[in-house]
Amino acid sequence: MFNHHLPNAFRALVIFAALAAPAHAAEGLEAKLQVCSTCHGQNGESIDVSIPVIWGQQPSFLMKQLHDYKSGDREHAIMSAFVQGLKQEELRPAANYFAGKPWPARRTPAAAPASSPNGIALCQICHQQNFVGGAPAPRLAGQSYEYLIGAMHGFANGDRTNNADMVKLMQGMSAAEREAMARYIAGL
């Protein structure tokens, strides 16, 4: 009699395990991602102005950055080391986890943007109106001036090369133009 019920019990166990596995996997990934708050903040507010906001960021952008850190196309000692601990199949869920969080409210109101700098329309082709981002490009509105100018200079001087279009665009701008652009976007 015991042997007769064993296959049914085994089937039930396999079904239970299959149904529970995604939940446990999600919990495991979420646990891995808690370390991100060390730099990117508990409530999406980064601990330093040079660190980008990732809560509510475009998922395609987050996925590309995670992929590029993992493959070595983008280098950053902390991020590259962290992403190596993620499996390839965890990258998209990790990107979606942060994209699904609400964009943090500003602690202090941003200064009203000055008049639009030259070249703004070219940037809005990808980054969209008001720099809220879209499928091809990240949200920039709400990022700090320090992060924005650092990213722009990184593209311009060849330290950051994981987006050939941005390298060309930033190299085509003067330092003063990049400065004006970063100040304008940071004020949005």
Topology:
Elements: H1 2-33, H2 37-40, H3 59-71, H4 77-84, H5 91-99, H6 120-127, H7 145-156, H8 164-171, H9 175-186
Short account of what is shown:
It contains nine helices and no strands. It has 188 residues and is mostly helical.
Structural write-up:
By secondary structure, the chain is mostly helical. The chain has one domain: Cytochrome Bc1 Complex, Chain D, domain 2 (Orthogonal Bundle), CATH 1.10.760. 56% of the residues lie in helices and 0% in strands. It is built from nine helices and no strands. The chain has helices at residues 2-33, 37-40, 59-71, 77-84, 91-99, 120-127, 145-156, 164-171, 175-186. The termini are far apart.
List keywords for this structure.
188 residues; single chain; Cytochrome Bc1 Complex, Chain D, domain 2; mainly alpha
Name given to the CATH homologous superfamily: Cytochrome c-like domain
Name the CATH class.
Mainly Alpha
Number of strands: 0
* Rg: 21 Å
The N- and C-terminal alpha carbons lie at a distance of: 72 Å
Q: Tally the helices: what do you get? A: 9
Specify the structural class: mainly alpha
Q: Which ranges are low-confidence, i.e. pLDDT below 50, for 5 or more consecutive residues?
A: 5-24
Domain unit count: 1
Range of helix content: 55-70%
